[in-house]
Design a protein that fits this description.
With 134 residues, the protein is mostly beta strands. It has helices at residues 17-26, 71-80; strands at 11-14, 31-36, 40-45, 48-54, 63-67, 84-91, 96-102, 108-114. It has one domain (11-123): 2,3-Dihydroxybiphenyl 1,2-Dioxygenase, domain 1.
Length: 134
Amino acid sequence: MPAEFTNQYPVLPVADVRASMRWYRDVLGFGIDWTEGDEFGAVSSGAVTVFFSRAEPPVAPILLVWNTTDADAMCKAFRTKGATIVEEPTTQPWGMREFLIEDPDGHRMRIGHVDESEADYGSFAGPDGKPLAE
């Protein structure tokens, strides 16, 4: 392949770009990067950037998956800021400890860190169809 992907910037449809950007700043700790009037904007935190585009409600919810260094600490911090916690931190059979939050537009973020203490890869297969765990 002559080139490869270098970044990913999801664009979330939202009812109010500025209100969404404030929520990501005030609740999740993102920085506001820029806005283009009331139609478009961007926030970022660490290696994560999210774009927002104004859309008429209802908007179709999108699921984002983010990695962190400590899912439990992040969940606790978000809870104190008023985030809607949909699922509490749980160690998953795919080797991640994850929790799920929802923003005011209904978009969800699954956030986690690697934790293979309860991993069970028995049902997972690689691209060749062979089991990952033997």
